[in-house]
Design goal:
Strand content of chain A: 15-25%
Oligomer: heterodimer
Largest sheet of chain B: 6 strands, parallel
Strand content of chain B: 15-25%
Number of strands of chain B: 25
Helix content of chain A: 25-40%
Strand order of the largest sheet of chain A: 2-1-3-4-5-6
Largest interface: A-B, 19 and 18 residues
Number of strands of chain A: 6
Shape of chain A: globular
Helix content of chain B: 40-55%
Radius of gyration of chain B: 58 Å
Largest sheet of chain A: 6 strands, parallel
Number of helices of chain A: 5
Distance between the termini of chain B: 123 Å
Shape of chain B: rod-shaped
Structural class of chain B: alpha+beta
């Protein structure tokens, strides 16, 4: 693909959570650029290279996508489904990052092909773990890695 | 020689010989004598003496007798020197053949009064020469009738004689052979004969005649004895005759057919009941084979019946079918007994046939009503009930066709079920109703004969073309509401009587009930469905609510908590101890808030999630939970032991796992500071259930608080000592209830607690 360093895309509408993600990456010493879209629609535009995102030089295809579930216009599952319907994008590892610890969300994420399911807030351990997905494209899809804080036990 | 002027001999007080004398004073001069005799010779002597005495005194004489008696009497009269030819020529003497006269005056087995006056009265008038001569007459016609068994006619004839004597003065001698009064006879009639006469003369063997005193005395005693035996004979005969008449009357009055037949099955007698049941008159069937009463398909029964009779056996209450004169069948119960002659030989059979058509019909009606009720009670679908009801109506009412019509939503009567009705007929009459829909008390309408009913012409045409001659409309109503109607049709004119429609009315009521019940049931079902739908909606809303709680409510809590942590990490060095402590509190509050939200979500998830119960290896599950707990809290010094092999239960694994984890957490958590938690898990069997015990060495729960323990947000220990949300045990209880189990606790409030959760055993399931 490209020789440039990997790019991370985060689809998230909550400014706080964007802040916590940046902080977690920083604490984990991950220096690759983080692109953020504020809703599901924008995420689709970015990934499809539409409108303002047509310039792949400015907006490169990400190596890892973090998707929030509850977003305006299109939710995380819609985006996930769309990604897997696009032959050029379906190999990008997608991680669901959400407040929800609900079983039905976990199950749906697995069904739609998410590589991992993480419950907020993101921590530096979590993001470091997720970064491994960018190198290993053969992670078992049927049992997505799940990273949850101990408090949700 | 016997003397004619012999005084009459009283034959017994009971004969009341003097009655007639009081009523008819004329007869005191002109006697009406009756002579009983044993030999013809004796009779001839007495009659010739009687007539001769008259002729010799210038009186007229009439002999109405059998040829033999006339000859014997005339022989004796001639011997007395009487010139009968001359006396006959002067109308002083008449000798006539009794059977000749009798055949002329009998009409329909009884003597005709007019003819009698004309024939016999004419003779007397001639012999009396217009009343100038006294007349003596001897008559044998009565005795002949008596001998032929025509006793009523005989008595009638005696009466005619007496009537004649009222208008014409003459003495009459009657005679009866004694042998006519042996064996079974009618004693009452005998008395009547005696009563009809003013004097009774005894037989030759009892004659009281001359001789010495001793002989006379003996003769009279003999006569008395004879009279007494005659009297008792008469009394006995009378009794037998009474009984016979009674029996005959019983036979005649019986509702049952009483028939006698010989051993070849030929009918020998036939009562009124038989006529009523079978339609044949006695003269039409007596002498015919009893097979004529048996439908061809049942004729094989008769040889068996006859064979039983020949063996002297009777047949009791044998239910079968017989055929009427018009060919229709009748259900009968037969009792057939052999009839014996005096020697005990079987000569025939008496057969009593009871018409059990009504009984059978009642039985049938009961059966079909039972079937209908049972199908209604089994709550089978309405169309099936209609069919059963139609079948029941046709069978109960012996109707060829029937139909059920119900009002549809537009208030039009529509056929719901029918039998033997053409499409055209149904199309034409549908919608027609004899009652208005709001008629509060609709009454049945019966048309006995369509051709003579006042119906609209087009209806009449259609009904007639369908081959229907009679029909009844029965209202189908429930609690004053008209639902529809029941129709009964006959192919022949039918005279409806209110009683016969009773079973039909019962059927109609049952169907009305079934329809109504079904409607109520459907309403109820619709209500339940509506409620269920609204409940489902409420649950769905609840689901959405907790889903958004899960997503949205946690976000601000998390933000608060995380920013506090960031502050602590990035600026901790610049803060004094107080500031740091406040930040700690913010972080703790956030953590607790998040925990609460998650516990509530768990609780509500447990309440609404659909769970399926399966056998669970409680031993494996519990040991896994304990292992994970010890892994996660490696720092804990808790001692946890699982005792023995735990019994399997029926449950929902995620829910049970949650419940056990919560109980285990509590057991370890609530200990006096400094004490090493010691928890034992074990199972015991209780009435097909398995109870899992979780025993700890903690601080225990006082009995007065135990009832609050399993409610949401109830805490029985102060927050500052033991952190918790107050939802953990509510989750345990909810989980147990959802799995059909129970939870509980035993504790004295000092020496630890023994919590338990009880579920159905996997082994008995």
């Amino acid at each position: 693909m490209n020789t440039r360093q990997p790019v991370i895309l985060l689809a998230e509408d909550d400014e706080n959570d964007i802040f916590f993600m940046r902080r977690a990456l920083q604490k984990a010493d991950i220096n690759c650029p983080l692109y953020v879209t504020r809703d599901g629609k924008e995420a689709l535009d970015y990934l499809g290279g539409d409108g303002p995102f047509a310039d792949r030089g400015h907006y490169p295809i990400p190596s890892l996508v973090f998707l929030d579930l509850k977003m305006p216009f299109l939710n995380g599952f819609d985006v996930l489904e769309w990604i897997h319907s696009q032959s050029s994008l379906k190999d990008i590892p997608v991680v669901i990052l959400t407040s929800s610890a609900e079983d039905r969300d976990r199950k749906k994420a697995a069904q739609l092909g998410a590589k991992a399911y993480c419950v907020k807030p993101p921590t530096h351990e979590m993001v470091r773990e997720m970064m491994r997905l960018t190198n290993d494209k053969n992670v078992d899809v049927s049992a997505p890695h799940c990273y949850c804080p101990p408090s949700t036990q | 020689m016997k003397k004619l002027d012999l005084p009459p001999v009283p034959v017994g007080k009971n004969l009341q010989l003097s009655n007639e004398g009081r009523d008819q004073p004329l007869i005191t001069r002109f006697k009406h004598l009756v002579q009983f005799y044993e030999s013809d010779e004796f009779l001839a002597d007495r009659v010739s003496e009687f007539i001769a005495a008259g002729l010799e005194a210038g009186e007229g004489g009439i002999v109405i007798a059998t040829p033999g008696h006339r000859e014997a009497v005339e022989k004796r009269l001639s011997e007395k020197g009487l010139n009968l030819t001359a006396l006959t020529a002067t109308n002083e003497y008449f000798s006539v053949d009794a059977s000749d006269i009798l055949s002329q005056l009998m009409a329909n087995d009884s003597p005709d009064e007019t003819l009698f006056h004309h024939l016999v009265g004419g003779l007397v008038t001639k012999a009396a020469n217009g009343g100038r001569r006294r007349v003596r007459a001897f008559g044998e016609m009565v005795s002949m009738l008596w001998a032929e068994g025509k006793r009523a006619a005989a008595i009638q004839l005696e009466g005619l004689w007496n009537g004649l004597r009222r208008s014409q003065a003459f003495s009459l001698l009657c005679a009866y052979p004694m042998n006519g009064f042996s064996g079974a006879r009618n004693g009452e009639a005998f008395r009547e004969i005696c009563r009809a006469h003013s004097e009774v003369l005894s037989t030759e063997n009892s004659t009281v005649s001359g001789g010495n005193e001793e002989e006379r005395f003996r003769a009279i005693a003999l006569l008395e004895q004879k009279a007494k035996s005659l009297e008792s004979e008469i009394a006995k005969n009378s009794l037998i005759a009474d009984r016979g008449r009674l029996l005959a009357a019983i036979v005649e009055c019986s509702d049952d057919a009483i028939i006698s037949k010989d051993l070849n099955g030929i009918i020998t007698s036939w009562n009124n009941g038989a006529e009523r049941i079978f339609g044949y008159k006695a003269h039409e069937i007596v002498g015919h084979s009893v097979l004529e009463l048996i439908p061809p398909e049942r004729r094989h029964e008769e040889p068996g019946i006859l064979a039983r009779l020949r063996n002297g056996l009777r047949i009791d209450h044998y239910e079968t079918v017989r055929r009427r004169k018009n060919g229709s069948h009748v259900d009968v119960s037969l009792t057939v007994s052999p009839v014996l002659d005096e020697t005990g030989k079987i000569v025939g059979a008496s057969k009593i046939a009871r018409d059990i058509t009504e009984h059978k019909r009642a039985e049938l009606q009961q059966q079909v009503l039972y079937e209908l009720t049972s199908s209604i009670n089994r709550a089978v679908a309405l169309p099936e009930i209609y069919e059963t009801a139609i079948e029941a109506i046709c069978r109960c009412q012996a109707a060829q066709r029937a139909a059920i019509l119900l009002f549809d939503a537009e208030g039009v009567m529509r056929f719901k079920a029918w039998r033997n009705l053409s499409d055209e007929y149904r199309r034409t009459v549908e919608g027609h109703s004899p009652w208005k829909r709001d008629d509060p008390a609709p009454q049945p309408v019966c048309i006995d004969d369509v051709l003579h009913a006042s119906l609209e012409d087009h209806l009449k045409t259609v009904i007639d073309r369908e081959g229907i001659r009679a029909l009844a409309f029965l209202p189908l109503s429930y609690e004053g509401r008209l639902l529809g109607k029941f129709m009964i049709y006959y192919n022949e004119p039918h005279h409806f009587v209110p009683e016969e429609l009773r079973p039909a009315q019962t059927i109609v009521n049952q169907v009305a009930f079934a329809i109504e019940r079904r409607r109520t049931g459907e309403n109820l079902e619709r209500m339940v469905n509506e409620r269920t739908a609204s409940l489902r909606e409420a649950i769905a809303q609840m689901e959405e609510f907790s889903y958004s709680v899960s997503h949205d409510l946690r976000a601000p809590v998390r933000a608060m908590q995380c920013y506090a942590e960031v502050l602590m990490e990035d600026y901790g060095a610049q803060l004094d101890e107080h500031a740091k402590k406040y930040l700690e509190r913010i972080i703790q509050g956030g953590t607790r808030m998040d925990r609460l939200i998650q516990d509530i979500l768990t609780y509500s998830r447990l309440s609404r999630r659909e769970i399926q119960l399966h056998p669970i290896s409680l031993d494996k599950l519990t040991r896994e939970i304990v292992r994970q707990y010890l892994d996660l809290s490696a720092s804990s010094r808790a001692q946890i032991s699982v005792e023995g092999q735990l019994f399997g239960v029926i449950g929902h694994e995620p829910s049970l796992s949650q419940a056990i984890s919560n109980l285990l957490n509590n057991a370890v958590k609530f200990v006096t500071p400094g004490t090493t938690p010691n928890v034992r898990l074990s199972t015991e069997r209780r009435n097909g259930d398995v109870r899992l015990w979780i025993e700890d060495n903690g601080i225990g729960i006082k009995p007065e608080y135990q009832h609050r323990l399993f409610s949401v947000f109830e805490r029985v220990h102060p927050e500052k000592n033991y952190e918790g949300t107050g939802i953990g045990l509510a989750i345990v209880r909810k989980a147990a209830e959802r799995m059909g189990g129970k939870v509980g606790v035993e504790s004295d409030g000092v020496n630890g607690s023994r919590f338990w959760i009880q579920l159905p055993s996997a082994e008995t399931a």
